[in-house]
Amino acid sequence: MSIRAENLTYVYGQGTAMEQYALRNVNFEILDGEFVGLIGHTGSGKSTLIQHLNGLIKPTGGTVYYDGVDIHSEGYSLRELRSKVGLVFQYPEHQLFEVDVFSDVCYGPKNLGLTKEETEQRARDALRLVGLEERYWEQSPFELSGGQKRRVAIAGVLAMNPRVLILDEPTAGLDPRGRDEILDEIRELHSERNMSIILVSHSMEDMAKYAGRLMVMNQGEKVFDGSPREVFEHYRELEAIGLAAPEVTYIVHELRDHGVPIGDDITTVEEAQKAILKLLGGGNHD
Ligand code: ADP
Ligand code: MG
């Protein structure tokens, strides 16, 4: 699996008075098994970008390739692409509509033309993957909590068995516990199911914890692309575009400025804790 964007450009309302550049010459390639965090200030183009990757939006300029093939070339099946590249919208619970949870999750695989048995098997697997207990399956999705609704929506996309899962701010509006649960489940999908993940978020802390690679957007352009460590090196530039590196980055740099020999490769609180305890000579604090 690979997704490649070449000079991707998108203009809303092109040729009208409302013309708005959302993406400008964006280039990247995402390979099998990557966990990519996509960050950027509101309006930087994140949602527009990801909707290009399963063909929901057609580029104004440039090309999107899936496994080397232009997804807008003649005869290319966008329907098939959408089963391979699963997209979970922001506030996906707004798109729940079936009378019960189980039917809602069946909707996608059913439309892929699978048999009833296959469809139901997929739905059961997906609901278990997102950790929604069986006692909820016959309930109306509207009776569930915010976090549960969101898990049903994610299960609906997982039931399509995608190779790549794209999630647009999946933790928006959830309390800290709901947020951690969802992120941990996404991490499991990545590590155990070997699914490629593209996670849109504006939490640098979450990104440092979960993503192996970060792509930073600003005003429709990709401004940084690298490991969290590489990207957070640019914490001053990140600040200038309205993004702060994780709090711990500042502490580590402050300590280094004061001559404390702590590594500059630290991006999470856990890593900082370990390094500081080690410096204090504590030894076995694990
Ligand atoms: P993000 O997801 O990073 O907040 P978006 O992709 O939603 O960014 O938006 C990128 C830019 O495109 C913004 O300037 C936004 O106002 C504009 N935009 C987004 N959706 C539309 C739309 N449907 N019509 C016109 N402009 C839009
Ligand atoms: Mg958005």
Task: Give a description of the structure.
With 286 residues, this protein is α/β, with parallel strands linked by helices. Helices cover 39% and strands 22% of the residues. The protein is built from eleven helices and ten strands. It has a six-stranded mixed β-sheet with strand order 6-7-8-3-9-10, sandwiched between helices. Strands 2-1-4-5 form a four-stranded antiparallel β-sheet, covered by helices on one side. Helix 4 packs across helix 5. It is globular, with a radius of gyration of 21 Å. The protein starts with a strand and ends in a 7-residue tail after the last helix. Magnesium ion (MG) binds next to helix 1.
What string gives the helices and strands in order?
Answer: EEEHEEHEHHHEHEHEEHHHH
Strand content: 15-25%
Structural class: alpha/beta
Biggest sheet record: 6 strands, mixed
* Biggest β-sheet: strands ordered side by side in the sheet: 6-7-8-3-9-10
Low-confidence stretches: none
Say which molecules are bound, naming each kind only once: adenosine-5'-diphosphate, magnesium ion
Net shape: globular
Helix content: 25-40%
SS field, number of helical segments: 11
Q: End-to-end span in angstroms? A: 38 Å
Number of strands: 10
Evaluate the radius of gyration: 21 Å
Overall mean pLDDT: 93
